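Regression report. Comparing outputs from two consecutive submissions.

Submission 1:
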Amino acid sequence: MDLRRKDRREARLKQEIEKYRASNPKITEQFADLKRKLHTLSAQEWDSIPEIGDYSLRNKKKRFESFVPVPDTLLEKARQEQEHVTALDPRSRAAGGTETPWAQTPVTDLTAVGEGRGTVLSLKLDRLSDSVSGLTVVDPKGYLTDLKSMKITSDAEISDIKKARLLLKSVTQTNPKHPPGWIAAARLEEVAGKIQAARQLIRKGCEECPKNEDVWIEACRLASPDEAKAVIARGVKSIPNSVKLWMQAAKLEHGDLNKSRVLRKGLEHIPDSVRLWKAVVELANEEDARLLLHRAVECCPLHVELWLALARLETYDNAKKVLNRARERLPKEPAIWITAAKLEEANGNTSMVGKIIERGIRALQREGVVIDREAWMKEAEAAERAGSVATCQAIIHNTIGIGVEEEDRKRTWVADAEECKKRGSIETARAIYAHALTVFLTKKSIWLKAAQLEKSHGTRESLDALLVKAVQYNPKAEVLWLMGAKEKWLAGDVPGARAILQEAYASIPNSEEIWLAAFKLEFENHEPERARMLLAKARERGGTERVWMKSAIVERELGNTAEERRLLDEGLQRFPSFFKLWLMLGQLEERFDHLDRAREAYESGLKHCPNCIPLWLSLAILEEKTKGLSKARAVLTVARKKNPQTPELWLAAIRAECRHGQRKEADNLMSKALQECPKSGILWAAKIEMSPRNERKRTSADALKNCDKDPHVIAAVAKLFWQDGKAEKARTWLNKAVTLAPDIGDFWALYYKLELQYGSEETKREVLERCVAAEPKHGEKWQVVAKALENSHQPTEAILKKVAVAIGREEIAAENNGKH
């Protein structure tokens, strides 16, 4: 039945829809026949159809223009957007320039912002409020700070003030015994500029909450200067045991006598207040202070600062009595024992200092006090700063080992000493090392660290004494003997240095280092015959290649060519793989223009040392002098094949091409070199110097990207700044270079040359002193000058000046070549 009814219903609905569509056809159906005929229209007929106009009633109505006033908010926004502020707002200046007044912030709708701020404030207060037994208790900490820093700059803020006033009125009415509500209400009126209203409110607060010291202090702050004393007097009358009120009352007084009188009155009510006792003692003279402190320690016997202050003011005997009484009252207080030790040290009884600290630590441990090693070390540093060195040493000696495992002692103590050294606590570090050396007598590393400390912060006498003890306990430690001898030599005591080296040789008879140190001492002090004898003995005892090399150097300086050649030949027979002997032989032949023999020496050396770069470079330079560029190219090509990724060989090849004017070939070699050695600083530095002037900045940027910490690149960039006349930047970059590589003398020479041109006498002297302290040994130009025969015994200062002159000559020659 349902299905039949459904079918009939759907058929009837379909007939009704068809009947409706037949009587009310759509517009598209009405024009369907006409649209079908449009395909017969030509293009001209289509274009001639007129455009339909706008005939709607909406556009036929007459339009009236209406004018309304521009809102104030829009004008304000436009003014602020167009305004250029060149000075701080007066309110901002009053706040120290650290606060931005609200009116300088672009505001779109002042009324909406005001309503929003009121809502935010009410939400904050609602969140802070809490309902307790029908009363509203407000914690004022949050909004009191806001009120104190608020600046009223607009009507919206005034509206906020009104809302806050209503809220705080509700607080004070619902809970009049709640002091923060009164304080907040008074501060709100103060912010609003109504100081009289604020005073009235806080006065009511004092009446409602007479036992709250914060309300009285706020009332005192808001009161006029004439009334403040009366207000605080009523306060201390209501709360005579309030330390804060008595301190505030003392602040209001003028003159130390009046302040002291008020504080003493307070002490009558609160005799156990340490704060009041400290304040009254500070105002008193020494005699009165001593009497006051006697009374103070009776009233506050458990406060150690008062006992210590009294001990400092008493005589030696009375101070000891005071500290003994303090120990009885405060048996767990370490500061009393430390003060007792300082007292003995100040009176010259240094022998008692260690005993007092030791006895104090035992007594504290009996009382159950945990000895905190770090805290005691801080006390030792404080004692050092106070000038009590013996106390510092005693504390370290008795506490440094507490809580440290036996196997960790050496590492921990050395780390502690280094940390103290960094903080400037030199005596503490010295004491740690002294204690460590009593435990580790034979540890060479600790002796060395202690010696370095004495060298940098002690005297020559203390260093000599330490090194004498060091070699007594470590007679086989070469480095300690050599250090002692060097310090004697630097102090000008050559016989003393000789004596130390003789003792060292007696302890370590076969030590080559001691033989060579003795040779150097005699050689540098112009005693060549003694030096020759020492080296001859060393050779007899089977010295190493270094002994033969030093022997040849001595003969070269003395001009004994035949003996020099003999020693080199003998040395090469014994040590054919020691490249320096081959180099010296080749240089010997070159000095006398025996170029074929020199070539043979270099080639023989390369057979034994194919990976020795200095030999390859010497041979290439010799071939360039004798047979020209092509032969030098061949030598350097072979060298690069046998020693790939060696920037020095690439650089030598590039410079050889440049010397002969082959700039294009040099550029090609530089590109290949940087492909093979992209992180080579010397290659990038050479590329910066070779680049045209307009490309040097880009090249230096690429160089720094690839090797930003390389001193050669940094020095090359410094030269660029120097050429541009930017002396300060050049100085900064050269300082970086000598800091990164203090052993390279070329950078020191550049730095010194810069100071000669732009610096003062002080900066020149500083660079000179730093260079002498660094003792540079390497550098392309430095080694050429330092190893020349005429400069063999020259000090570092003279070498530096000569290298600076040589660099200047090279730069002038390069400029002349560039012009030609």
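Submission 2:
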Amino acid sequence: MEYINNLPSMDLMRSEEMIFTQLIIPVETAHRAVSYLGQLGLLQFRDLNEDKSPFQRTFVNQVKRCAEMSRKLRFLKDQIHKAGIISSHPASQPDIELEELESRLAEHEHELIEMNTNSEKLQQTYNELLEFKMVLQKAGDFLVPSGNHSAVQETELDENVCINNDYVDTESLLEQQPEPSNQSGVKFVSGIICKSKVLSFERILFRTTRGNMLFNQAPADDQIMDPASNEMVENTIFVVFFSGEQARKKILKICEAFGANCYPVPEETTKRRQITREVLSRLSELETTLDAGLRHRDTALTSISFQLSRWTNMVRREKAIYDTLNMLNFDVTKKCLVGEGWCPTFAKTKIQEALQRATFDSNSQVGIIFHVMDSVELPPTYFRTNHFTNAYQEIVDAYGVAKYQEANPAVYAVVTFPFLFAVMFGDWGHGICLLLGALFLLAREKKFGSQKLGSFMEMLFGGRYVLLLMSLFSIYCGLIYNEFFSVPFHIFGSSAYNCRDATCSDAHTVGLIKDRDTYPFGVDPSWRGSRSELPFLNSLKMKMSILFGLAQMNLGIILSYFNARYFNNSLDIKYQFVPQMIFLNSLFGYLSLLIIIKWCTGSQADLYHVMIYMFLSPFEDLGDNKLFWGQGRFQGRTYGVLGTSDMYNDEEPDSARHPREEEFNFSEVFVHQMIHAIEFILGAVSNTASYLRLWALSLAHSELSTVFYEKVLLLAWGYNNIIIRLVGLAVFAFATSFILLMMETLSAFLHALRLHWVEFQNKFYSGDGYKFRPFSFAALTDDED
């Protein structure tokens, strides 16, 4: 016992020792002290204002200011993203105060909102002029009679000369309202409408005017940007000819309902040309103005992008500091803040140094008081992990966080989890494929670690070291099973079996005898394809599953012993650990012993018969099922021990896992421990049977791989046709990748997870603790905003 007590402590075996501390901080030092503690990230503050709402706390105004600055930063980030500007690395500039940053953000937001408003107005004017230009061009073609095209072309030069000479003195026709001609009594309305609405628009016009109208349309030459969605929209130019003022009012209302923009087009060709020139001139000016405004906006956003990341981190930190200060209370003098929290024992010196540095940097005359207190609360659980062990710790924590100082299953899961996975997945060909994937993730570790990944890729990257060990153990188990994509190889020498005589026609099915030493490593390749392959592998893997299950369950019970020793609870050792070990090993330990003896001696004994009649007739002569001398007497004693262990288990008093806090009640304790005893006895049987999933999934994986190899690849390779062979190879590769390497990997992973969570951890692991969550700037994410 002294040797065990003197063993050095393991970092991951038990959580870090925690201490409960109290801080008394002067008001003038509080902000800087909390900031330094956030940089250190080793103190978990306790909320002393749980009874207060967020709006009743001391620093609520500062939190609101930070929240408003976060909103402005998100607005700036969205504007940079919409402009397509790539965020640059933060420039090295001196730090600024929060008040100065607040004023800068307000200026940038106001400037950008003003620029966006002006740009939208200019863009709307530009769109209207562009639509007017297209309406003038297309509507002019409808208004000019087909026989007058030559006359129009003859007068074009004269009109151009007149317009060029008198353009400066002529009043702008855009400002004039064209007077419709009433010579023939036919009027028209021209405009532009979205292409998708044209059919409905024409149908409604026809029904409203009862067919007394003429509808002409033509596709617009240019697409126009929709300011609401920033997408290019296809439009159609239309001209509606009608007669009567009532028809005109109806048509204008329908245009308004369909969102069609109507533009006045003069009938005279000269006026249309002059208006077109004025529109083109204004469009050119607007394009120049829009380009200049866009360049100015991009320049402003580019300068902001250099500092956006630094500003965001600064605001996020300030908000976290004030949220933490809101967890502290003022003392009676209102001059100091009082805080409480948990920290690891090893961090005590570092925290004191950070507090001293905060006092010195704040030029405070009063130091910060830091002292350790006693607490009746259960401390938080904290394990120091690295990139390798973190994934295994997360697997355990997904079931439940370890109670403070409880034995940590993650220490053993580092080996047992990938090994049990490999027992179900064993194929060294598939293991090599997984290994290549794991090596790819490890080679890109720095690149993937610095960028934001999708949910699936992030999960896969987080478990890269788990995948690495799973692949290595799969290769190891695959070599034991002697399976490479279900194909056996003579890697470690020749087979121990050979053909009986010269008449042996098929050495893989009949007539094999053992003429050499046993195959040195793993399964003999001659078993593949033989008549007894399935019975042999079934027996091997089933017995192997029971041995592995018993070993892991015994490990769990042994860990419960170390938990009881650590918490100084001798009752758990006497009345829980000892009966559980006796019961489990008297039944399934004895079965495992018989399996090993049968393997070593080559006996043909029926283990089913032995185990059944151990209870029915424990002292009966076993006959051919006898495996060792004195087996009958041994079974009788084992049966007696089982009865004794049941009695102890039923009378088991209260345990350390459920400490006695109320007055002792014999009937309540008796019922509770009787239920616990029945649960363990039935659970021992069901848990042992649950480990047979190792046999079932291993066999299923092997048979699936064999089917794909023989019924797909070999069948396709039997044809002397390159196309059929390529198709067969493609189907085999697809089935191997998506079924065997993805679905089977996920299935084996989940079953290994179940074996650890239920069959292993329920023997010693309560998992009712809570994580150590220190105040740390490194743990802040975008969600904190």
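Expected: both submissions complete independently.
Actual: both completed, but the second showed a warning that disappeared on reload.
Relevant detail on submission 2: The first helix runs from residue 2 to 5.
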